[in-house]
Amino acid sequence: MPWPSRKRDKAAVADKKEPDAKIAKTEEEAPDKEEEEKSTKAPAGSSKSGWKNWKKTKESDSGGEESKITYCHWLLKSEPESRLEKGVDVKFSIDDLKAQPNQTTFWDGVRNYQARNFLRAMKLGQQAFFYHSNCKEPGIVGIVKIVKEAYPDHTQFDQKNPHYDSSSRKENPKWSMVDVQFVRMTKRFIPLSEIKAHHLAHKADGGPLKNMMLFTRQRLSIQPLTQEEFDFVLSLEEEKPH
């Protein structure tokens, strides 16, 4: 891969236009605990017009019953702008992914235990939002899918790599990665500011984004999404930007 360790987790930082995301240069240490994971079919992404119509449709489909919270989709943060980390440029945009052979690459450099566990929970074929982070205007730019489930991250053993971990052993690797493949660009850029506005509204009325990890655990560059969160955010690509 011509861009080593572009995807990172150890050095996740605050999105520049998100004042509430007071994130240090290193992620907070999280409990080494597996999150419950359930594989499900990817959504079609049909158009909805705002939270009220979305809620009405979902209640009609489910009989008004609340579904059990399970994580079946993901959000992957990556930096689209150049930034040196231990002499290595960690830039990796969605255009860089599209330029890879078969538009596929490994998602390496994760050095947070909770994020690593999320990686290990990913299932073949599951979809994730590709999120541009630590840039002028952060937000969702596309969709990728998991094409290889978790396996040892080779960068942990490479002393020249900024994510080298001297405490990890090949017989018992501490860190994992997955392979992802480009699926498509979103129909429009979905900015963090727009997602946050819905999150705040949903906190008040019980909408699907009320507990979205993008705002409750901002430091994590690997984040799970429920089916409802994924569906609602995907529906925003059909809306005119505010």
UniProtKB/TrEMBL annotation:
Main location per the UniProt record: nucleus
InterPro entries linked: 5hmC_binding, EVE_domain, PUA-like_sf, THYN1-like_EVE
Domain EVE: residue ranges: 73-235
Region described as Disordered: 1-65
Keywords annotated in UniProt: Nucleus, Phosphoprotein
Any one of the GO CC terms: nucleus
Location in the cell: Nucleus
Superkingdom: Eukaryota
Compositional bias of kind Basic and acidic residues: 10-28, 56-65
Record function comment: Specifically binds 5-hydroxymethylcytosine (5hmC), suggesting that it acts as a specific reader of 5hmC.
Protein name: Thymocyte nuclear protein 1
Organism annotation: Probosciger aterrimus
